[in-house]
Structure formats: C-alpha cells, structure tokens
Amino acid sequence: ALHWAACAPFHLLFGVFALALGLPADVTGAGMGLGVLAEIAVLLLFPRAEARLPLRALFAVAFLGSAVRWALLSRATGAAAIVSLQLLHGLTFGLFWGSAMKALADLVSPRLRATGQAVFTAIVFGGGNALGYALSGLGYDRLGGAGPLFLAAALAELLALAVVLGTTGRPPPARVP
Prior knowledge:
mainly alpha
C-alpha cells in the first residue's frame, strides 16, 4: 500500500505536471504509451527474473527503480526526459505486480487465492490510492506543484524499500488444519 500511495502523485497529476511545464498534451500520451509497453515487457520477462532472484530482491528493484523514477521526474523539464522516464513504469507496476502475485501464490492456499487477491487489491489499490490521493491533493496545494510531490514519492519508495529489506524473509509458521 505504501508503494501504491507513492504512485498517487503520478497517477493524479502527471498530465498537470506536463502542462504546467508548458508541454503539449501529447507528451502525457507518449509517456503513458511508453510506460505501458515497458510494463508489458517486464511482465513477459517476469518468469525469467523470478527464477533467478528471490522475491525480496524483485520487490527491492521495483521500489528502488520507482524511487529513481520519481526523483528524476521531480527535476525533469523537457519532453524527452519526461517521456523516457516512463520506461521505469516497467518496474513501478510490472515488476511490482508480478512479484505481488507470486508472493500471493506462495503464501495463500489455492482454495483462498481469490480471497487473498481481493484483500490485497482492497488494501493496496483501495487504501493506498485513498491515502496517496488525499496526501497528493494536500501536498500539491501546500508545496506548489507536482514536482515536489514526486520527490516526496521517491522518499516514500525508499521507506517501502527499507521495509522490504528489513523483513526477515522467514516463512510463516506452519498452520495445523
């Protein structure tokens, strides 16, 4: 949920950010299109990555890559930089989603998998979006634009990274039926 809350400034204000820089609306469209292509590519390559790296490392790459994306976007002013940075969406969503679904498959019994995914979706996309959008609105008004919010998002991603790196990684104890 923390990672998804950190994505909220982008989801809410990417177009506003580009327009505030005096860039045409097609910059937003090009960035979104390139981001979707990167997401698809990472999702297609996820089985190979997952076979080579532990989930903790994959989540770490997703969060670190997102932190870099938001930090660089906070300073970007030109169309080429803004559009090309959207290639990191492959990590922000593609690698995050693939890792999350793999974690659910590993941790939730097949009989409860749909329920597990529903709870995950409610917490991450419901709770994370609600918190992130509210904070983005407040931050936009107080900080004077989307750029500073992207920097705050980078810091939130570093916090998510610290959580992932700080966990023990031990499987939960076996439950007796």
